[in-house]
Amino acid sequence: MRRDVETVLSRTKNPFFEHADAEYFLAERDGAVVGRIAAIVNRLHNEFHGDRVGFFGFFECERHQETANALFAAAAAWLKARGADTLRGPCSFSTNDESGLLVDGFETPPVMLMPHNPPYYVELVEGAGFLKAKDLLVYQQGLGGGQSLPVPDRLARAADIVVKKNGLTLRPLNMKDFKAEVERIKVLYNRMWEKNWGFVPMTDREIDHLASQFKPVVIPDLVPFVEKDGEVIGFALALPDLNTILHTNRSGRLFPAILKILWALKTQQVHRCRIALLGVLPEYRGRGIDAVMYHWIWTRGAHRRIGWGEAGWILEDNPAMNAGLLKMGFTVYKTYRLYDRPL
Fold this sequence. Notes:
By secondary structure, the chain is an alpha+beta fold. It has two domains: 2-134, 3-Layer(aba) Sandwich (Aminopeptidase); 141-336, Gcn5-related N-acetyltransferase (GNAT) (Aminopeptidase, 3-Layer(aba) Sandwich). It is built from eleven helices and 14 strands. The strands form two sheets. Strands 1, 2, 3, 4, 7, 8, 9, 10, 11, 12, 13 and 14 form a twelve-stranded mixed beta sheet that branches. A two-stranded antiparallel sheet has the order 5-6.
């Protein structure tokens, strides 16, 4: 939606700018725009990691290396003047947002909140001197079209055993207590992912901002909370893939698109989802609790005729998450890449 993109880019509306700065550049030839880029200083990232990384994002460019070089040069100069020693990206704006350049899996359409780019962007980025920093793997499972694969017996048995052995309780997101649920997520989020490469903590205002955007379209049954002794120890967020509805909305206008979205959700016409978040508190990892949440999303999604799901992204060097998804029958079908270039 144009309105959403405008809010993201707004230095006054987006709480990201409470701890960051950015400058936007356009490349023009003969009065026509042929490329764009954002240069980003995320002070919270640099404080958290103790480094001086500057980011680029929102990169779009014609198939012309000189144009790409000019865009990267503009971003690099702006960032170097602010003390950065590395240019990393694409991140629009951080790893909490759309991240990575698609390097494999161009033949399938993008899922909600995931980037997509032509294959030649890889040539432009690498031709400008960038080297791989990290790959982000994305998995898929299912059939789509309202049909779903049966839950593997091994997963169903494992989920049942883990729940009983650990004394767990699972429940869906409580929309009547939405504000309190968001507060619970705030407590969990940064603890769950703080050790991940490239992780940036989210502020309370950023989480509130995202929650307000997701609230109209979230499906409570696809947001499981795991509790032990009355304490929430894990949660997952699976979002309906609204791209299947929005891909015909060429104008990007809110109306009538929002009406189509709400009707499609009500009548269960969205048959795809993306598991965007799934985490467990560090002290409870290694007990199979992630499998319990995958089982919940799989079965509850099937009840809503959601038969296909994307899981990710997952860091390439996260062996536990990658091995777990492969054991459940998920397959890697897209790879995104973050690049670095010294300044």
